[in-house]
Amino acid sequence: MSFSIIGFGPVGQALARAFARQSIEVAVASRRAPDALLPQARAIGPTVSPVTLQDAVQADTLILAVPFWEHRNVAKILPDWQGKTLIDATNAFGVPVEELDGLPSSAVIARAFPGARFVKGFNHLPAHMLAADPKVGGGRRVVFLSSDDEDAGAPVAMLAERLGFAPVWLGSLREGGSLVQARGRNWAPLIFQDLIKPE
Predict the structure, then answer these.
(1) What is the pLDDT of residues 79-112, one digit of tens each?
(2) CA angle at residue 3 from 183 to 121, to 5 degrees?
(3) 44 burial class (0-12, 13-18, 19+ CB within 10 angstroms)?
(4) Looking at the DSSP assignment, which residues form a beta bridge with residue 85?
(5) Cross-referenced SUPFAM superfamilies, in alphabetical order (predicted)?
(6) Among 3.90.1010.10, 3.10.20.70, 3.90.1150.10, 3.40.50.720, what is the CATH number of 3-198?
(7) What is the pTM of this model?
């Protein structure tokens, strides 16, 4: 199983730290050339490898950590996303609700990646919390997952466990996903909720 993170801003780097903490190899990519990402990647750890966007999308599981509308440029890289698992860690804060056609923000992104197994996750915590050790006070920090494909959720939950988090399943994108998204300039109720699941 291969992993990549697309987007190497604060959230992408925080997720890379989670992979590095567990010595799990992960490719990272952004609009910048791989050489431009190398200093930050090296500072995070030896299992983090900068690659081109074209190489990053070859991974089995991809985490999307880009500004919301940037997903459209990523989606154009492959004509078909069959066989890929895509984890949406984006937030649509500041995106006018009218631009989403009445859909949850993740459902808008899911439409752009035909064939992908699509899961919303890792988006409700600020970057500094995602980057921190998820083992806290005898428990593990919660990450919320939602999808319209329950079968897609299981391997993502397993990944969250490997990274040290406690995954909590919220259900479909319209129901659960709506609890962890922005609507215009308003945050949903579970955004920024730093919950710890006791061991």
Answers:
(1) 999 999 999 999 999 999 899 988 999 999 999 9
(2) 25
(3) buried
(4) 61, 117
(5) NAD(P)-binding Rossmann-fold domains (SSF51735)
(6) 3.40.50.720
(7) 0.96
Cα distance between residue 87 and residue 75, in whole Å: 13
For residues 150 and 50, give the distance between their C-alpha atoms in angstroms, rounded to a whole number. Answer: 31
Q: Is residue 186 helix, strand or coil?
A: strand
The CA-based dihedral angle spanning residues 116, 129, 164, 139, taken in that order and rounded to the nearest 10 degrees: -130
The pair of three-digit structure tokens given for residue 69, joined into one six-digit string? 């509308």
User: What pLDDT was estimated at residue 114?
Assistant: 94
Q: Which single residue is written with the structure tokens 């009445």?
A: 102
Q: Which two tokens stand for residue 172?
A: 């479909």
In tens, the pLDDT along 38-55 reads 999 999 999 999 999 999
Assigned token pair, 121: 């996750």
